[in-house]
Design brief:
The chain is mostly helical and about 160 residues long. It is about 65% helix and about 5% strand. Strand 1 and strand 2 form a beta hairpin.
Length: about 160
């Protein structure tokens, strides 16, 4: 089995980006309940932006293993039956959630509602949603490989 280099770069970069964000969000979650010391907003923002950069690099690498890149937009049209289409939809959703998480930390946005600051809670909700989106990506990727019957190592 000799996969294309673009597939190796795609899976590695996206996997590292997902793992980085999950570690970052776990750190923030533990800090929220007092198990770890709280880091600065800049720490979480830079970690979120680095995770996003890795995901974008993986997405760019995915273009190089398409036979006809100009038809890439069609990959999302079969979402009812194709795990690849579901993955193509889940990745930008994940990237958007991570971007929002990072940008809120970057600007230290902490709205006051009813006399309470909700900034940390907003990032925890967004981080939780991004984590769920990452696990959906894991599921989609796993189902793509499970559907490849002729590769016994992956089936």
């Amino acid at each position: 089995m000799h996969p294309a280099f673009s597939v190796i770069f795609l899976t590695t970069l996206i996997g590292v980006g997902q793992g980085l964000f999950l570690a970052l969000f776990t750190s923030e979650s533990y800090a929220a309940v007092g198990l770890l010391s709280k880091q600065s907003h800049t720490f979480y923002a830079m970690g979120g932006f680095l995770s996003l950069l890795l995901l974008v690099a993986g997405l760019i690498a995915s273009i190089f293993h398409l036979g006809r890149p100009e038809r890439a937009w069609r990959s999302a049209t079969q979402w009812r039956t194709s795990w690849l289409s579901r993955e193509v939809i889940a990745l930008p959703l994940t990237m958007m959630l991570i971007f929002l998480y990072a940008i809120i930390h970057w600007f230290e946005w902490n709205p006051m509602l009813l006399g309470y600051g909700f900034g940390d809670k907003i990032t925890l909700v967004l981080g939780g949603a991004a984590s769920v989106a990452i696990f959906i990506l894991f599921l989609c990727t796993g189902m793509i490989y499970a559907a490849i019957r002729f590769l016994k190592e992956w089936a």
